[in-house]
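ingest -> validate -> predict -> emit
validate: passed (alphabet ok, no gaps, 784 aa)
predict: started
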Amino acid sequence: MAGRGRSGNRIEPSFSGRPARDDDEFSLDADDRIAGGRSPRRGGSKPPQQRAAPRRRREPREREGGGFFGFMRRMVYWCVVLFIWAGIGVAGLVVYYGSRMPSASTWAIPERPPNVKITAVDGSVIANRGATGGEALSLENMSPYIPEAVIAIEDRRFYSHFGVDPLGLGRAIVTNLTAGHMVQGGSTLTQQLAKNLFLSPERTLERKVQEVLLSLWLEQKYTKDQILAMYLNRVFFGSNAYGVEAASRRYFNKSARDVNLGEAAVLAGLLKAPSRLSPARDAEAANARAQLVLAAMREQGFITDSEVKTAMSQTPASAKSYWSGAGHYVADMVMDELPGLIGDVKEDVIVDTTIDKSLEKKAEQSLVDVLDKEGGKVDASQAALVSIDGTGAIRALVGGRDYATSQFNRAVKAKRQPGSSFKPFVYAAALEKGLTPFSVFNDAPIRIGDWTPENYEKKYNGEVTLATALAKSLNTVAAQLVMYDGPDQVIKLAHRLGIESELQPNASIALGTSEVSLMELTASYAAFMNGGYKATPHVIRRVTTAEGKVLYENTYDSPPRVLSEQIVAQMDAMMMGVIDNGTGKSAKIPGWQAAGKTGTTQNSRDALFVGFTSNLTTGVWFGNDDGKPMKKVTGGGLPAKAWKEFMIAAHKGLSPAPLFGNGQLIADPNNGQPMAEAAPGDGQAGDGQLGSGQPMTAEAPPSTIGGIISGVFGGDDNANRYPQAPVRQQAASSGNGPVPPANIAEGGGSGYEGVVPPGDVGGAQTTSSVQPRRTTLLDLIMGQ
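emit:
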């Protein structure tokens, strides 16, 4: 029968309703289950006397695992379980966020923003420009203290971890928990590089996961040294400086190649908080952080105790709040011009300039000296300077008193009235029309239409030569010359020499009423220095890539001639008189021939002096940015003094050389024009003289014997030597327009006998007219 044993009895289920276990307190053995006619257990039965004795009662299971060791076992168990689940969760997050990233096969290091390295003629760095502010350096080329300092304070296990440092992360967590706030970060240098290269600065779980993945990729693809170099050349050091080269030049004004131990500690300390720990903002905080870096370096064995002591004395105490120095005006100018020469800058380039750094410093110092000494007394707050050689190469440029205070370049971008410093163009145009330095005009009150120009001193000198009129900067004579030349001719000549600004064709152009920049005015004067060739101002000589490929090289080797040699010699001689005997006496340079012209605008709003030696042409401007008038400052005052200080410093150690033509005039048999002849000299000749010692005044005729004989006897060859005087025009009674002067005397005689001058010239004079003395052959023989 189903459900019954051999005795016919059924098998009873266990009490618990579950299969019996031999360790159960109430479990039955085979004999127990057979007793009472129950079915015997498979495999036979045992007699009662052979049954095993009852087992000892055991403790319940929950008491079996009690105690400390049971607790620890359970903790380990659950920790393992949690670790497994955490691993699964992390793996899931990595897979999820990793799937949101581009394929690893497309990962590449972003190009470093290009840097523009701007150098002087000696190869020294003037400035770096670009998004980074400095060129990239290899570990071998930078100071070894820099990578050591950064590793010691930022990632001491850099060379042993695989991109992520679990020990460092754990140490950072413990340190932060102990301190109760964020003290130490757990990111490695590789992680920081990955963040800087690829990720945004936001703090999210996704960004952190991606940072780890990118770090592992960087470690697999690049060597440790390559990773460290990339980090040091891209990390932000504050003050718009990215990379160690930019930071070193920003804070210490030197290359990262030359950084000492103390400076390296400051740079490494900046990484924690570039703005807060900047030596330009808080020198004490920067130095305190540097001490921690030095201690970390000593702990890591990079330096010794004696080196620490030395470094403490090397740590800079402060840094300027912004880039300073006149060289940055040059750097800004280069960056303005560079796209027009090579297009967009797509890689690191080196720009070789024409700047002489020693001259640049001397130029800046000369302006600061004069402003500090006298600027406050005369309400002059700003100044600018440009110095150019005969080829047009800019050797020094100062755009203002202090670049850190104002980055506006007054030498290049500001356009102001040049005043009387424009007069050389008026006189040169007159010489081209046939006048000479000895042509005589009447310095007297004059009216041209509604315009009545006056001399600065409101005094008049009567009949004067052009040389005297230029030396004394007589406005009435300049106004007459403009009407004689024609304003259009003056403008054409000025543009031919290098003035690029638009000029107004009116009579007042004689007094410099059209605005120009100091740079173009100075470059135009260079044509008088170099013998009559156009000097196109330029500051960029060459542009090359970091590998040496030439992208641009200037082509100013063959400038066009813009003035004849005889005109240049005559103008140089007359402008020498400005310095030797005229309004520019404050600009005299001992031992050197120098020529130039002063300029002062209405109410002394602007004061200029532009002059040259045989080596340099330099222009100086003083004034105020808001156009506020200065207190009786003229071009012969502060500008001439600053010009002299700079030029003396610039010519120190050089052998004096005469100006073009050495102030001598000879007759040119080829074209009948007076022509300059370069004569040997020791640089001492001149002093406002033409020829062999006769002063350039109404009393001084041409000093060559042929010229004197021609002037006395009126020989037939006189017409061949000098051009015919302009045809005389009869003045209408109604005063219809200006009439050019006729019969201009070439030998110093009066040219106004029976001539109607332009406009209305004459009237009351505050000084007696100067009667020119006519030189005769007998006078020459008698030595008079």
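The chain has 24 helices and 20 strands.
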